[in-house]
Design a protein that fits this description.
132 residues; alpha+beta; four-stranded mixed β-sheet; 20% strand; globular
Length: 132
């Protein structure tokens, strides 16, 4: 009799884990598509996790820019692409920084007037964009 609860618990953990990995893959695919749709983005690598008690979205975004002003323009466009994407969830976090390939220029959402690293919902509110 004791074996049955353990088997049920293991099956439940497996099904929750499978759902989480599907959600993580959706997150990674959606963020990559939105990011790479912006001219001036050289590459985007995402790591999303939707585990118990929360999760995270981490990214390495490389942008093509020769000046800080160009980099800020690209970051602004990337954030607008996130806001417009219907595949991104409001609670998902945006990148902490965006870096040129040689690492000489690093910009963040603060450079486009966000007080902190915003989530997608805050980006939508900031730009007044509702995904279509």
């Amino acid at each position: 009799m004791r074996l049955l609860p353990a088997v049920v618990a293991a099956a439940l953990m497996l099904s929750v884990s499978a759902c989480s990995s599907g959600s993580a893959a959706k997150c990674e695919e959606a963020f990559t598509a939105a990011t790479m749709s912006v001219p001036g983005v050289a590459s985007a690598e995402w790591d999303c996790n939707d585990s118990f008690g929360g999760g995270w979205q981490r990214a390495d975004i490389v942008i093509e820019a020769t000046t800080e002003d160009e980099a800020i323009t690209v970051v602004d466009a990337v954030l607008r692409a996130y806001a417009a994407s219907p595949d991104l969830e409001d609670g998902w976090g945006t990148p902490q920084e965006y870096v040129t390939e040689d690492g000489s220029i690093i910009v963040s959402a603060g450079d486009v007037e966000f007080p902190a690293v915003p989530n997608v919902g805050e980006v939508r509110e900031h730009y007044g964009i509702t995904p279509g």
